[in-house]
Amino acid sequence: MENSTGIGTVTRKMVRKRATELAMISGSTSQGLSKSDLAQARHELTGGSDIDPQTAILESVPESERAEPMPSSTGHKAPKSSDEDEDGEGRSQSAKLVEQGVEEAEHDQMLRAAQIKLP
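^ thats the sequence. predicted structure below, dont judge the formating
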């Protein structure tokens, strides 16, 4: 990480100065610093997380220890549905259309190549 020297201990004066800057940016006056300006300044200067504390706590738990939504459900494999449009080789209608399109494109390319070769 480049240019990442710390600012040291964050003081109240530093927080108040940054809160004043935030208030000026938002159009407020320094006389009326809001709690949100002070909280935002403290957050920026201390490098706090951008997510709320509740979410941070939930995400700090390893996935292997998180509760499953339905712990009693073991699940099951759904049976494969047969597609009535499949041919004897197991190709669906859309697969046949793709194959037909590819064959037509190859044919067109061969015709164009042959026309270029002819004087």
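The helical segments are 12-26, 35-46, 53-60, 93-117.
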